[in-house]
Structure formats: C-alpha cells, structure tokens
Design a protein that fits this description.
The protein has 110 residues and is of the alpha/beta class. The chain is 26% helix and 20% strand. The protein has four helices and four strands, in the order βαβαβαβα. Strands 1-2-3-4 form a four-stranded parallel β-sheet. It is globular.
Length: 110
C-alpha cells in the first residue's frame, strides 16, 4: 500500500532483458513486493528473473509468482526464491501445497 510507504511492482517475464530491472535497482530494497507474471505454463523466464533478483541484486522483499501456474511448478518456484504464489483459477490450494513435500530428496543442486 503506497499510502503506508509500501510499494509493489508487477513485472513481466521479459523484465530481465529490458531496462525494467536496471530502472528499479536504485530503489529495489524499498519495494515491498515484486510480482512476476507467468503468462503461459511454458514460459520459464520468471524463474530466471526471480533467481537474478535474489542472488545478483540481493532483493529481500516478497516475490510473488502470478499467472498460469500449476501445482507441479510450486517446488521449483520456492527454490528460485518466491515467497508467495497465486495459482491459476480453479486450482485446489490444499492439493497444490502437497506438491511441496512430494519429492523426498532433491535430484538437482541449487
């Protein structure tokens, strides 16, 4: 809420390839929420953008994944640094959360 000094920004997945991130860098740590759009299930650019924001730019605020997101993506979204996820319409949130514990071990390094 901007009136309370909290600002949120909605990013499209191509933000890493245009000047959007560069423009945000001076005030990045003042942004409470960055929502990253996943326009289609096959578009994985949001994962890279989240990892870039967390690892390279040290973003500590909330990262939220929004858009065409299914339960099968949840574990990987969390591993890339997302704090919250808005599932596609009609998805069962209880069943989706089960996906976070279905794999007993990681088959992939960080």
């Amino acid at each position: 809420m901007a009136s309370q000094g909290r600002v949120g920004v909605w990013l499209m997945p191509d933000a890493a390839t245009d000047s959007a991130i560069t423009d945000l860098l001076p005030s990045l740590q003042d942004i409470a929420l960055l929502a990253i759009q996943f326009p289609t299930l096959a578009d994985g650019r949001g994962y890279s953008l989240a990892r870039q924001l967390r690892t390279h730019h040290g973003y500590q605020g909330e990262l939220r994944a929004v858009g065409d997101i299914t339960r099968d993506q949840l574990l990987f979204l969390v591993r890339c640094g997302f704090d919250s996820i808005c599932l596609r319409a009609g998805a069962d949130p209880v069943a989706a959360c089960a996906a976070l514990t279905e794999l007993p071990s990681r088959y992939q390094d960080e």
